[in-house]
Amino acid sequence: MAYIAVLIAAIAGFAIGAVWYGVLSKQWIKAAGVEVGPDGKPKGGSPLLMFYGFLCVLVVAGMMRHAFNMSGIDTLGAGIVSGLGIGLFFIAPWITLNALFGMKPKELPIIDGGYATLACAVMGGVLTLF
Questions:
Q1: Suppose 79 and one of 20, 87, 93, 128 were both cysteines; which one would form an S-S bond, judging by CB atoms 3.0 to 4.6 Å apart?
Q2: Could you give the CA distance from residue 68 to residue 83 in angstroms, rounded to a whole number?
Q3: Distance CA 28, CA 113 (A)
Q4: How far apart are CA 113 and CA 95, in angstroms?
């Protein structure tokens, strides 16, 4: 059952990213400095990017499941709060560090860190449902 929970959590986290970046795509493209074509869409995209992106979210969900299991986190509220903490206090600061040293606009870590925080909170909740 743990594998199914990890897979469902990863799907939920990835789906949140689709909505998040769908809404904030223009701001993210500008902040990230992504080159766009005449249609306004990023140049050089590949379906493989989505596959690798999903694999990354799957790894995070798997590690969250392991950490939750080792820590005895097994209620919905505890899962959401713990996921929120992982996103807000582990992932978002690291994203911010990368953006700072990459001299990226402040909007980039706000957008990316916001997604990581929200997605981890939802994934944390999903992981406790199974």
A1: 128
A2: 9
A3: 12
A4: 6
DSSP class of 95: H
Whether 1 has a pLDDT exceeding 80, the answer reads no
Residue 43: the pLDDT is 87
Number of domains in the chain: 1
Model-level pTM? 0.93
Neighbours of 14 (CB within 10 A): 19
What letter represents residue 53's amino acid? G
Q: Which CA distances in Å does 40 have to 14, 20, 30, 101?
A: 23, 18, 11, 27
Give phi and psi for 36, each to the nearest 5: -120, 155
Give the domain extent around 54.
2-128
